[in-house]
Amino acid sequence: MVVFKSQEVARYIIEKKSTVWGPAHSGKETLYSDGSLLLHGVTQKDSGFYTLAILRTDMRSEEAHVHLQVDPSYSLCCNPLTPFPLMIQPLPPYVVEGNDVLLNVHNLPEDLQGYAWYKMIYRGHVIKIVEYSSAMYSLSWEPEYEPRGTMYKDGSLMLLNVTEEDAGMYALAILNKDFKIEEAYVKFHVYKNVTQPFVQISDTTVAGQRSVIFSCISPDTNISIRWIFNKKNLQLKERMTLSPTKCGLKIDPVKSEDAGEYQCEVFNRVSSKISPPVSLAIMNE
Question: Is the pTM of this model over 0.90?
Answer without folding.
Answer: no
